[in-house]
Amino acid sequence: AVAKGHQPTPTGRRKSLDIVATHIVNNDFRCGLCPFCASPNVNLQGVIRYPDPVPFASHLLELTRSPELWRCEKCRSAYVENTIHPQEALALYISGDSAGRWEATAFETDKTNRLVDFVAGAVKRGSVVLDFGCNDGVLLDFLSNQGCKTYGVEASATARAIASAKGHTVVGTLEEITEQQSFSTIFAMDVVEHLYDVSGFLAQVRKHLAPGGRLVLLTGNINSITARMARNKWWYIRYPEHVRFPSLKWLNRYSGFRVEKAASVHASKGYVHPLTRAGLMSGLRRWWEKEYDGMPVIWPDHYVVSLKPK
Predict the structure, then answer these.
(1) Cβ–Cβ under 8 Å, residues 261 and 305
(2) Which of 155, 159, 161, 162 is deepest in the core (most CB within 10 A)?
(3) Number of neighbours of residue 172 by Cβ within 10 angstroms
(4) 224: buried, middle or exposed (CB in 10 Å: 19+, 13-18, 0-12)?
(5) Calpha distance 245→198 (Å, rounded)
């Protein structure tokens, strides 16, 4: 049968999908310790409710277990237990149509001015840049217009072909980039939340940074007011692909990088809601009733950060 894809959030750029078949996936992968700092001092925040069927990388799945949100008291990061196994998740990404999942909107049109200015300020004309998880090259298009030489890494063959057709140099994995190739700025925008081994990724990235280079990350802020109010109901964790939520504390103290600059931002313009009395009261009422999922996003619930190796 053909099933219509569901959205875990009422706004954003995810397309409605027509996907054939639904298959059962055993999601019993667990960490036990904090996957960021290996601390045993972790606390269960609650069960996560995904849409049914579960949309994952343009596939529709049925999971065998209930996913759980956990928080580390040492580094203040959070993560999901009862996830799809990493290798199976990678296979789903590779076979999925990531370009077909999202509306093709120019980076500078979709993102807030604060985020666009942050990204533009991280590069100079003539910079050699890499976007890890570049999808169909929307950010690379923007960086190319800034006068940068653009490279990308994208697991999805479909999205990779679209980005390459635009003139960007795109490969499937970071390992395919030679050790001699270095970049002044590496971007990972809306990516690290998908990665099971964020520390390993940062170690790989570091090898490809030119002297004085920087890594720019955009991801959901698990310690934002919005996320703390919503807890296990937060809209951002209801994407089943999102499994890791590093804190700025961890990035600055434990990751091998130091925070050069950081800013609180919204995921995109579609999530910006004016801070009105009515909106604030509505959010507080839903929080009191334990129904608040972070929507409307009254306070920015993402961060963008520029990191430099220590």
Answers:
(1) yes
(2) 159
(3) 13
(4) buried
(5) 9
136 in Cβ contact with 159 (< 8 Å): yes
Amino acid (one-letter) located at 30: R
Tokens 């570049």, residue located: 134
Structure-token pair, residue 86: 């990493």
Q: pLDDT value at position 3?
A: 27
Give the C-alpha separation, 220 to 265, whole Å: 9
How many residues appear in the chain? Answer: 310
DSSP 3-state assignment of 39? coil
- Whether residue 245 contacts residue 217, with contact meaning beta carbons closer than 8 Å, is answered with no
Instruction: Report residue 146 as tokens.
Output: 């800034």
98, amino acid identity: S
Structure tokens at 77: 């990061």
3-class DSSP state for residue 86? helix
| 3-class state of residue 188 by DSSP | strand
Q: How far is CA 204 from CA 181, 200, 201, 208, in A?
A: 13, 6, 5, 7
- pTM value? 0.87
Q: Which of 226, 239, 233 is nearest to 296 (CA)?
A: 226
pLDDT digit string (tens) for 23-51? 899 999 999 999 999 999 999 999 999 99
- β-pairing verdict for 128-132 and 18-20: unpaired
Measured distance CA(281)–CA(283) in Å, rounded: 5
Residue type at 183 in one-letter notation: F
Residues 6 or more apart in contact with residue 285 via CB below 8 angstroms: none
The C-alpha atoms of residue 159 and residue 58 are separated, in whole angstroms, by 12
